[in-house]
Amino acid sequence: MTAPAIDAPQTLPVELQDRRAPAWWGVVCLIATEAALFAYFLFSYFYLGSIARGAWPPHGPPALRLALPNTLVLLASSGTMWWAESAIRRGNQARLRAGLGLTIALGAVFLGVQMVEYHNSDFGPRTGAYGSLFYTITGFHGAHVAVGLLMLLVVTVRAWLGHFAGGRHLAVTNTAWYWHFVDVVWLAVFTSLYLSPRLAG
Amino acid sequence: MTSTTIRPAEPSAGLEERLGRIWETAPGLLGVLGTVDHKTIGKRYLVTAFLFLILGGLEASAMRLQLAGPERHLLGPEQYNQLFTMHGVTMIFLYASPILSGFSNFLWPLLLGSRDMAFPRLNALSYWVFLFAGLFLYSSFLVGQAPDRGWFAYVPLTEGTYAPGLNMDFYALGLILLTVSTTVGAINFIVTAFTMRAPGMSVNRLPIFMWGTLTTSFAVLFALPALTAACIFLYFDRRFGMHFFDPAAGGHPLLWQHLFWIFGHPWVYIIVLPAMGMVSDYLPVFCRRPLVGYTFVALATVSTGILGFGVWAHHMFATGLPPLSTTFFSAASMVITLPSAVAVFAWIATIWHGRPVVRTPFLFAAGFVVLFVIGGVSGVATAAVPFDWQLTDTYFVVAHLHYVLIGINLFAVIGAFYFWLPKMTGRMLSERLGRWNFWVMFVGFNLAFLPMHLTGLMGMPRRIYTYPAGLGWDTLNLITTIGSFVFALGLLLFLVNVWWSRRNGAVAGPNPWDAPTLEWSIPSPPPPYNFTVIPTVESRHPLWEVELGEGARSRIDVGPTLDTGRETLGTSALDAEPEQVLRMPEDSLWPLLLGLSLTVTAYGLLAGAWWMAAAGAALSAVAVTGWLWP
């Protein structure tokens, strides 16, 4: 291979806004290591479950009555986030702001419902190892939702200040990636904590 | 999105002055606290990590005085527990990895033909948090409650019931804080490696040192969260009465061991692969030929990093795991010696086929190979399950791990200082003192640790604060103590040499070793902007192309100037073709503020002062927002 010589003037873009941007690489790396953290949480859950001497979960599988609709709420928020991001790629400011507002609302609903679920629960983090795992895993996920909401709030303020345009939207894109990640992690958490005990029957 | 036209030019005095103005750190306190220059950050890393090495060494010296003979009571058992724990924590977490981050931070942009790392402010954050995590851990001595249950902190001994006091809370929270530093550092290396290389520096032209740090950085992303998870669980158990490790309530102590060693074994490779990489790069300079088997060494580096994830349970052979898993992990632990052997043979072949020039860095590299082989062989020995049953938790294991960590990390590092310090300071170290330095360290080290294998074989358990006479351990322990002080004297000679060189060392000039890579094409010490023009690279050895006669012609003296602001070139991930112009950030106080607020959070959690933890978290959010605000 010959070197791509720079012996003639060359016109290059300043700060690409796509997957070649260092900031995007950075967010992907952050997501990878955060995903690993949740993988170790879930490893711990299955490890202790596999050697449990009594029933696992000890109190029966957690109820789906609130958790299932809440999962759909969070999934929907990924949809609205996607809608907002695809809007700004085309320079549509109004749809960006609307999409961000909807995403924040859905995220907040998710956290609220999780609080209700905690409140109604008949076990706590100190009840036993299962409770410790349940609250730590869902709690850390909730904290990630809260961080995502904070990021969305900042991006929303910036959207209203007119910081973004068709070719200038890296912060929106990166926030969207983080938000989708938080959703995907929830699917893994939901499948492990809520669905897998039912499959095991 | 805007675009700009870059024009190749030759360096000129006017251009250098313009770039100097753009890249210089502001003088005064603001510059000291806010600098994002990778060279300054790298040097801070090196100095800080070395200070921790000295602290850990002093702790070891105190222990060796205690163990010099039977029934000595210089230290009480609790003091001894704190010293061996902090010795391990310091060496593993505060010296071995950060010292390599220091070299990487200083060298990477220079090796890459770039003007800084991908995220200069993240780099500053990484340093501040490392410093604060170290101070956090050491502040435990101020309240007399330093971690005291061993550096791998096995439960249930570390649970609140058996370890009341703040000792192990300092441990759990300090290490969580440190993971922040290590993780953002790793992200910075990965992104820099894939976006900031000089045009033409395709991945098959990277120095091996970069392969080492890059592999290590990926391992950090996937291994470190296991430690974070374990420390979170430990803290929750201790502080909130949760039950992760409590078998009476459905938890299990082995959960800690699994999580800790899933992290811990990749970590061993994290603290040796970049050091092996440095040797792979500076040993050939003194053999006057390129490294033999570049591709194999690069692949061996990556495969060691990957295999490192499959060997963790060899730390747990004595815990009663089923034979199927001990067999698997035993086999995996033997397989991982293969890529290490590839590297060893490549070094030997490089020496064999070269024309060795025996200077101090060469001595350290050669010594490193010898110690690596000894440490590797005792490693294979303990990978065999029955052998491990006999020797686990004896001094044999202590001897093995010191051969690996001092042999592969510290010897490589001191050699690297002799090699690259002239680039950092502009002055050569004394060659004569360097030889004394090497031989005293080498003799002292082997005198201390070779007999220790025997001490272990004779049954002396690790971590006992004293022992009765007449068990056959007395003489061996005395020899080890004498050897360890000789070793310490060798290290002291290094410090003397550094001190001496600052005033009296010969002026280094750009390339005192006639070395082949880009960092030697610029002045020593390098100017704030590193490269006046961005070089274009056509081979692995841009400065040896004429001698090697391979026909490649890298261009060092003509290239894009990028002098209209803090700018550098972004290139494509595999082939390094110019892709974009990257705007680099100015100096900033946000990283320091974020580091401080995270530390406030950690102290809040330590003391159970929730308002303080919340205030720290809120401040952190403010700092991140301020940082990212355009």
Spans of chain B with pLDDT under 50 lasting ≥5 residues? none
- Give the SSE order of chain A as H and E letters: EHHHHH
Structural class call of chain B reads mainly alpha
Please bin the fraction of helical residues of chain A. over 70%
Structural class of chain A: mainly alpha
How many separate helices of chain B? 20
Specify the overall morphology of chain B.
Answer: globular
Main sheet specs of chain B: 2 strands, antiparallel
Q: Largest sheet of chain A, described in full?
A: none
Gyration radius of chain A, rounded: 21 Å
Q: What is the overall pLDDT average of chain B?
A: 95
Gap between N and C termini of chain A: 59 Å
Which regions of chain A contain 5 or more consecutive residues with pLDDT less than 50?
none
How big is the Rg of chain B? 25 Å
User: What share of the residues of chain B lie within helices?
Assistant: 55-70%
Provide structural commentary:
Chain A is mainly alpha-helical and 201 residues long. Chain A contains five helices and one strand; from the N terminus they run E-H-H-H-H-H. In chain A, helix 2 packs antiparallel against helix 5. The longest helix of chain A is centred in the last third of the chain and has 32 residues, at 129-160. Chain A starts with 9 loop residues before the first strand and ends with a helix. In chain B, the strands form two sheets. Chain B has a two-stranded antiparallel ribbon with strand order 2-3. In chain B, strands 4-5 form a two-stranded antiparallel sheet. The model of chain B has no long low-confidence stretch (mean pLDDT 95). Chain B is mainly α and 630 residues long. Chain B is globular, with a radius of gyration of 25 Å. Chain B has helices at 13-23, 29-34, 38-67, 77-112, 120-138, 167-195, 208-240, 253-270, 273-287, 294-307, 323-335, 337-353, 360-383, 385-391, 395-425, 431-457, 474-504, 545-548, 590-607, 610-628, and strands spanning 3-6, 8-9, 559-560, 567-571, 578-583. Helices cover 64% and strands 3% of the residues of chain B. In chain B, a hairpin with a 6-residue loop joins strand 4 (567-571) and strand 5 (578-583). Classes of the chains: A mainly alpha (201), B mainly alpha (630). The interface between A and B is large, with 57 and 75 residues. Strand 1 (10-13) of chain A pairs antiparallel with strand 1 (3-6) of chain B, so a sheet runs across the interface.
